[in-house]
């Protein structure tokens, strides 16, 4: 394999360009860093467009296993795989501590109609997450709670939250690859939920019903909005039930990912525990 030692190499420059959302959207590609994240991507059958390995930074069995896997992929010609120097890797890495592994991968091709509905569906709606790390944290919790799919609405006149931001992938610890996630216009997402008889449970401080008092054991999609503005009017109007999380302090909002976690695990509690929900087999996305 080729070793890249110059930060001016065209492959390196192309990776750096993917720090910008516009460049990501045009190329329909994003960046994955870290041994755990890379390992989960490869384990789910993701074939990278390009992969970069910095031998000097490889640390631990997980990173070594992933690196060997990438070398094999490179040898088969399925992907371009390069060795890079520590200086080059530092230039490309979106964040520090990436363990010497970096992938360029294509966006996940996912639409609402790709979500397979079987059993009793359990979905999460995340509208206008202000920070990529919050959305990544929601995906991480969704993986643990057995959520079937996460829908990221695109409000009118907005590009919506960037589902493919490298920080989303990093904060999710790789759950970006294990939890089906779809970005779709709000009106289309609401119509899809209606067509599949999935109740919308909207979290809002103005609700009278506590989230623990609502029936979340059926076909539900729990919806949360940004800390600053909450859920948009479209989702509040479409809600079958509105719920609130009790707050006794002086701060007027919870972190989005914390709110989502409370709601997700209330669904788990009401259904008798994650092991009895049926798992993500109820809502996998075809790739």
UniProtKB/TrEMBL annotation:
SUPFAM superfamilies: alpha/beta knot, L30e-like. Belongs to the class IV-like SAM-binding methyltransferase superfamily. RNA methyltransferase TrmH family. GO terms for biological process: methylation; RNA processing. It comes from the Bacteria. Residues 9-100 form the MRM3-like substrate binding domain. Keywords: Methyltransferase, Transferase. Pfam families: MRM3-like_sub_bind, SpoU_methylase. Residues 122-265 form the tRNA/rRNA methyltransferase SpoU type domain. GO terms for molecular function: RNA binding; RNA methyltransferase activity. This is rRNA methylase.
